[in-house]
Design a protein that fits this description.
Structural class: alpha/beta
Shape: globular
Largest sheet: 5 strands, parallel
Distance between the termini: 17 Å
Order of helices and strands: EHEHEHEHEHEHEHEHH
């Protein structure tokens, strides 16, 4: 059984004391494919180091996170494009719009999002979307590029069935399902029940959004099994089927 964590920040400082052991434990548990979204220029060296240590299991993306967009975002985007021109990545990410913490740079986030989708098209890469408190704003921009046939993941999807169907209607898009599906009253269980598994990929977003019973604590890739088990329970199928289908879905997006 192979499980795929399509979104994990393994380079985060929260893992500085036990990173190698934590990753190896996840691999030993069958979570053998771990995809790392970039945040900004400061996160790049740590991400590259993890990739170097586990080249067959940990795969790097390149992008500028919306929470890192500020008055100097164009300089950060130059770093993104520099690295895209220097070496291969599995995706552009994570990119998008975040209106939860701060709306000061909303216009700059919109511009950075559009530019990075264009980079995804230029380099023939999928992209991974961050859309916290901003589904409508994100969807409006994504819809501008709907005819470009670019693959993408709506990371940490926590919307309703109608929003899920809008994402699926775009064509080459998957829903990233993480620890929120285990939260009581999140409503995500109803979405998972209604939507075909072929439209989903699994993720932890470690070190954030740990699933029940670890909610509020540091998340780690090994907890992906708890997410997969919850989906299996909701859909009344085996854990093995969840692993097989969602891993195949991840291969369709990332090409590896």
């Amino acid at each position: 059984m192979i499980l795929t964590d399509t979104h994990t920040h393994l380079y985060s400082k929260e893992f500085d004391s036990n990173r190698i052991d934590l990753i190896q434990k996840a691999i030993d548990s069958g979570i053998t494919r771990l995809f790392m979204p970039n945040v900004d220029s400061e996160s790049i060296p740590g991400m590259f180091q993890v990739e170097k240590q586990f080249p067959s299991n940990c795969f790097a993306m390149m992008g500028l996170h919306p929470c890192s967009v500020n008055a100097k975002y164009q300089q950060e985007l130059q770093v993104v494009e520099y690295w895209l021109s220097k070496r291969k990545f599995v995706a552009i990410g994570e990119i998008g719009i975040d209106l939860y913490w701060d709306k000061t740079f909303f216009e700059q986030q919109q511009d950075a999002f559009r530019i990075q989708i264009q980079l995804a098209k230029k380099y023939n890469l999928p992209y991974v979307i961050h859309s916290r408190n901003s589904f409508d704003e994100v969807f409006e921009i994504v819809n501008e590029f709907k005819n470009d046939n670019i693959k993408a993941i709506f990371h940490c999807f926590s919307g309703n069935i109608e929003q899920a169907e809008k994402v699926i209607g775009l064509g080459n898009f998957k829903l990233g399902i993480g620890g929120v599906v285990t939260f009581k009253n999140s409503g995500l269980d109803k979405v998972v029940e209604a939507i075909d598994l072929k439209h989903m990929v699994l993720e932890t977003d470690a070190p954030y959004l740990a699933p029940i019973p670890h909610r509020g604590k540091t998340n780690n890739p090994e907890y992906l099994i708890l997410i997969a088990k919850k989906i299996a329970e909701i859909k009344n199928i085996s854990l093995e089927e969840v692993a097989e289908v969602t891993t195949q879905n991840s291969k369709e997006v990332f090409g590896i």
